Amino acid sequence: KDGAYNTATFTTNANGTFLNGGTLVMSGTGTVQSSTTSFRNMEVSTSGTVFIIGTVPLLGTFTLTSGTLAMNSAASVLRVQGLSRFLGGTITTAGNPTLDLDGDAQFLGTSVGTNPPLIRCAGNWTADALTVQPTSGTVFLDGAGTTTINGVSGSPPDVKFWNVEVLNGTRQPGSNLTITGSGMTIQPGGSFVTGGRNVVGGCKQFNVLGRMGVGAGSRLSLDDLSLINVPAGGTLSIVGAPGSPATITEVGGPGYRVQ
Hints:
- The protein is mainly β.
- It is 0% helix and 53% strand.
- The chain has strands spanning 4-7, 10-11, 23-26, 30-33, 41-53, 55-58, 62-71, 77-80, 84-86, 90-93, 98-101, 105-107, 118-121, 125-127, 138-141, 146-151, 158-160, 163-166, 169-173, 177-186, 190-193, 198-208, 211-214, 219-223, 227-229, 235-238, 247-251, 257-258.
- It is elongated and about 60 Å long.
- 39% of the residues are buried.
C-alpha cells in the first residue's frame, strides 16, 4: 500500500483499496478502472496511452506529466479529492467524459485539444493560456467557499475558457486577469467578484443569475460588443469608495451592453 506502483494495467476491486499514501504510477500503455474502491494518488508519466474506464476515484492527488490520458465515453470519470496537476501530455476524449476535481486544479502544460472533457473544479483554478485554448466545452466552478481564478502567461495573465459556469461559492481573480471565452454564467447562489483586481472580460456574454460584483479599486474592461445580461433574480453590483472607484469600461470597439 506504500510506495510507487509501475504497471501497464491495474484494476481495483473491493479488496484493492489504496489508502495509506501510496502512488499508482502509470508508466506504460494500459487501463485504470475502478467502481467501488479508491486509490490514494495516481501519476501518469508515460510515452504511451492510459485509458480511464468507468469512475476512478482518488482520495489524494493526480498528476499528468507525459503521454496520453484517454477518456473515451460518458462513463469515464476521474474524480480527485486533492490537488490535480496537468503538467504535460495530452487529454483525448469521446462521448463527454468528466474530470471531477474537488481540490485545486493546475493546467500548466497539458493539451486538452479542441474537445475537452466536462470539468468540475471546487478549488482554485490555475491555467496557462499558451496550452489551454479550448474551442468547446464547459468548466463548472462548484466549490462552496471562496476560490481564485489564476493565469500564468501574459500581462496581465490570461485564462482561456470556452464556457465557464460559477455554480456556487465566490470566485475572484488571484491577480489582474484576462478571462477569454465564449461566455460566463453565474448561477443562483454563485458569485464572481473582482476583489480589488483589474479584469479584462474577453467573454462575449456574461449571464448573471447570481451575483457579479465590481468593487472599490477594480476595473472591469469589456470586449467590444460584449453583453452583461442580468435577468430577474440576478445582481450586478458596482460599488466604489472615495478615491477608489469601481469602474466598468470597454476595450476598444463600438461598446458593450448591460440589460
